[in-house]
Amino acid sequence: MTVAQTSPQRLLVTGAAGQIGSELVPALRGRYGRDNVVAGVYRGQPPSVLLEGPVERIDVMDLQGIALAVEKHRIDTVVHLAAILSAAGEEDPMQTWRVNTDGMLNVLEVAREARLRRVLFPSSIAVFGEGAPKDRTPQQTVLRPETMYGITKVVCEQLGNYYVHRFGLDVRGLRLPGIISSEAPPGGGTTDYAVAIFYEAVRGRPYTAFLKPDTMLPMMYMPDCIRAMIELLEADFSRLSHHCDFNVAGFSTSPRMLAAAIRRHYPEFEVRYEPDFRQDIADSWPNSLDDSVAREEWGWQHAYDLKATVKVMIERLSRRFELESPTDLGSDVPWQPKEET
Question: Which of 54, 118, 208, 322 could pair covalently with 170 via S-S, beta carbons 3.0-4.6 A apart?
Answer without folding.
Answer: 118
